[in-house]
């Protein structure tokens, strides 16, 4: 009997807390919490062998969502920087995605609720580890994007991160790439993101942007300016002729973006400029 294997075992003894099963030589406990359907009238039971929380060989009628030769999406249930991410594989014990195979920067590690495409590896002592899918494995799930147009919204799960950007697979099975210039923050591995198509390539893959449309960006930049002015009591020492480097340092936006945002606020009657300063109009203060 080895952990990580399926076996059909005979019922040897019923006890208050479950059943003892046997292969004719050894016995293993099937605890009542691991029973998924009635077995009282059965002589044999198909089970999956695991190691319980006290490091004893045990049996379960639950089936893992993934196996050594079967990949699947599994949900992250907890993260420890000294170990990695634990994922729910459908058993009473979670499997570990070791920190050695996670991205170098913890900031893009998956968080609880994210999902990873993995297969399962069971050690001789019954520890559950996972293996992240390679590009070749993911390719088996990818289909060419047909009928997709630029600016169309797509939602996908991050499955690979490289220096240049982020790879996602959409709900339809399309492969998308988000260049580092097309985002304000780097998405996490396993995160579900929604963006817009900026290019449909000849091979059927997509280039995707997480940046808002220009008119949406103006609203967002304008809010940044308003938030800053509110912090300063309704005024700021910046106006449409301020130094571009000062604008970049303070607001993290280009002078062009700053002027467009400021112009939209002035057009809306929210602010006015005077002597190199910008002020909220009285009704805005």
Give a brief outline of the structure.
Belongs to the CvfB family. The chain is an alpha+beta fold and 285 residues long.
Model description:
- Belongs to the CvfB family.
- One of its GO terms (molecular function) is nucleic acid binding.
- This is S1 motif domain-containing protein.
- InterPro entries: CvfB_fam, CvfB_S1_2nd, CvfB_S1_3rd, CvfB_S1_st, CvfB_WH, NA-bd_OB-fold, S1_domain, WH-like_DNA-bd_sf.
- The chain has 285 residues and is α+β, with helices and mostly antiparallel strands.
- The protein folds into four domains: 55 residues, Nucleic acid-binding proteins (OB fold (Dihydrolipoamide Acetyltransferase, E2P)); 62 residues, Nucleic acid-binding proteins (OB fold (Dihydrolipoamide Acetyltransferase, E2P), Beta Barrel), CATH 2.40.50; 67 residues, OB fold (Dihydrolipoamide Acetyltransferase, E2P) (Beta Barrel); 71 residues, Orthogonal Bundle (Arc Repressor Mutant, subunit A).
- It is built from four helices and 18 strands.
- The strands form four sheets. The chain has a five-stranded mixed β-barrel. A five-stranded antiparallel β-sheet has the order 8-7-6-9-10, with no helix packed on it.
- Strand 9 and strand 10 form a beta hairpin.
- Helix 2 packs across helix 4.
- It starts with 5 loop residues before the first strand and ends in a 5-residue tail after the last strand.
- The mean pLDDT is 92.
